[in-house]
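for the record, two folds in this file. i put them one after another cuz i was lazy. first one right below, seq on top, structure tokens after. the second one comes after a little note so u can tell where it starts
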Amino acid sequence: MQLLLELFVDDLQRSRDFFTGVLGFEVRAEQASGYTSLSNGDALISLNDRKLLGDDHPIQAHAGERLGRGIEIVLSVADIDAAFEKVTASGWPDVSELGERPWGLRDFRLADPDGYYLRISSMRT
């Protein structure tokens, strides 16, 4: 089994720029509709236009609701220091400090342009 996340976003180009420029993903495929498949190592994330969802779609956010509420996307990296340096060097706003967690991992957190919450974490050794 492999996990693929599909994020429905308001601005495909802005989200693509975030995942490629800030987090180092690469574009695997892009369709004429804008659907974009990205990868970074074994992590696979696809982006799609939120306008394609009907108003009654179960994952459609409504006025005043934050996208991805209740979901934490965890990206596990081999070199957390290098990942933190890349993200902070990008100038992306509101990146948490790199922290040591009681359960033995180091991580930092940020939100993508649509408010999806991401935790970048060191791999367990």
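(here's the note) second protein begins now
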Amino acid sequence: MPKTTSIPLRFQLICLILGQLCFALSTFFWIDAGTYSVNSATWMFFSMVFWALGWMGLFGMLAEQMPIYSKLGLLYALYGTFGGAAFAMEGLFIETFDLSEKAGVEASEIFPLQFNLVLYQSGPAFPLSLLILGIVLAYRKKVTWPAGILLSFSGISFPVGRILRKVEIAHATDFLLLAAVIWISFQLLGKER
């Protein structure tokens, strides 16, 4: 049986920070009322690539103490991450093909099950994963309670910036989450030394 290689935690945490940094940058390229442009969608797409590796590091830290949660939690978090990439692609195609902002809504009327599974059900998975993971990391003493609560609070505030489609609120929630992932990353790296 071939030996598997593990990805170093340091690299995963750097990816986590880069993921949120790319996500925060994507908001600067919104058009109209919070619609993803080609540039915004590109930043968001790469954000989700980095976030996927970051999630692996965070859930991997819990593998010994909570083997079932670490596997199922990672699966659910990745579902939300791929949903984020799907939203990015929607924005990419809307601007590229000069479609109406309601193109996704119109398409969901034709393909309700598919759009529900790919976009609408995956949407809450990302912030819910943040909310739960912040509490679990703090409870399992991987990070301090203030850092865990900040990550959880970021999960609660994250959808607000997206639902309201106000760029100022989106920037605030993006940078709040960036602060949280930087803080927990430094704490986790400090424990690895």
